[in-house]
Amino acid sequence: VVIFEGIHALNELFYHPRATGVYVSARTDLVQDGQVAMPHTWIRFLRRTVRDFNYRGADALFTMQQWPNIRRGEKLYISPFKDRANITFDTSLAYEVPVLRSFAEPLLATLPEDAPELGNIRTMIERLQLVDPMDPALVPETSLLREFIN
Q1: Is a pLDDT exceeding 90 seen at residue 105?
Q2: Which residue among 24, 28, 31, 74 is least enclosed by CB atoms within 10 Å?
């Protein structure tokens, strides 16, 4: 058994045709009243912002500045190959936005007025406020969300 993990794992340059490919990503949008209130890319941005702060000491501006490059890498090295996976896991959790809210709101509030994409961030903050916050202590110790909030 060989496990090859990372953004290039399904890339045709490295992928073995007899391998079992697994694609893991948060793919579910937060829908409210039949409308997408929070696209999955925003939820992934919130995950990344909170994790960067908790584990790298990076502020929200750092993550925001890195985000276009992260998205570019996804579009070049992940999206074209994700359909070759034999198994797909959606890592979205029903309780993650309520938990992330208490971590993300204060981080996003620190962004300077001239930050890029601030309009989108303001909308994101407004949408976060539509969700009741959840106490992070209620998150199971084995939850994937712990990777971002611990």
Answers
A1: yes
A2: 31
